[in-house]
Fold this sequence. Notes:
Elements: E1 2-4, H1 8-24, E2 33-36, E3 43-46, E4 51-54, E5 69-72, H2 82-87, E6 98-101, H3 111-125, H4 151-157, H5 167-176, H6 179-187, H7 201-206, E7 208-209, E8 214-224, E9 231-239, E10 246-253, H8 262-273, E11 277-279, H9 290-295, H10 305-320, E12 324-327, H11 337-345, E13 347-351, E14 354-358, H12 367-381, H13 389-393
Parallel strand pairs: 1-4, 1-5, 5-6, 7-12, 8-11, 10-12
Antiparallel strand pairs: 2-3, 3-4, 8-9, 9-10, 13-14
Helix pairs in contact: 3-11, 10-12, 11-12
Amino acid sequence: xxxxxxxxxxxxxxxxxxxxxxxxxxxxxxxxxxxxxxxxxxxxxxxxxxxxxxxxxxxxxxxxxxxxxxxxxxxxxxxxxxxxxxxxxxxxxxxxxxxxxxxxxxxxxxxxxxxxxxxxxxxxxxxxxxxxxxxxxxxxxxxxxxxxxxxxxxxxxxxxxxxxxxxxxxxxxxxxxxxxxxxxxxxxxxxxxxxxxxxxxxxxxxxxxxxxxxxxxxxxxxxxxxxxxxxxxxxxxxxxxxxxxxxxxxxxxxxxxxxxxxxxxxxxxxxxxxxxxxxxxxxxxxxxxxxxxxxxxxxxxxxxxxxxxxxxxxxxxxxxxxxxxxxxxxxxxxxxxxxxxxxxxxxxxxxxxxxxxxxxxxxxxxxxxxxxxxxxxxxxxxxxxxxxxxxxxx
Length: 394
């Protein structure tokens, strides 16, 4: 077992002053372990030969080891994914191994942590029963700053308050700290600059509608995350409540499940809903699905670079003018958390005087946003028609 923090010095301080101290105070196992504090080899070895130590946050960390458990504390300080690369492969041969990533909210350079947050939020929103356990204690991101000092808010998002953290300590911090820093450190509210979005969140949330649904034949768009771990299918079609608007709906997303499920699922959706067709981005990871789709009789619509640029601009305009609708409900009054989550982490690239989404520079998975962009484009390209299923499925 290994513990990591921002760096080895901080990891040792926490490990020695908290974990080792508490271990020494636990009488039932006294005499059943040996503590080594030699610099560079700090560890506790138990009588059953299990080891609990620390290591540095470098690409060469834990090289050659096999880990059953590891914890990355203060993950907001990591600017890249080196710890995933260092730790996860060491668990390949260990049954039920776990890698914990723990942190308060991050800053504008907390790329690694924001990716974990978005992955976890999507998994929860989709009811995923895979290998991710996501636990978040935070106040609402858009909490009025006037409520940062509300003790009811503190109790709602600080499980240690009144136990290991006395309330007067939080009151003191609130009186001394700048409001954004207090919100980040104590309420787990990410700073506004982290979630600055290409399409303003106010525009996007104004498109949320509990009555949003698709009437008639939808178009389906699919996209795949930069690392190919996740795929997402989004549908677009005439709004059932306002024929002048387009409803967008995340039909399926499976974090960590790869792409094998996508083609059978698209076949099923086209058959069930008499979809007008399937569309995907010509230059993204999703292009690997073109041949499997063609092999089952589905020829996808594929926008070229200029059309994809236009599609991005169309989504921007549609959000500004509230031409699109996204479904909301009591649990998610601001709209689909999967789409908003992708918007919050999305980066863009300049193409002449225009722009397009940029997967590899984004702070998390943007496949739902790309799929929504392509779906809106395809909705304008593929007219509804009398649909003969034999044309698609032979």
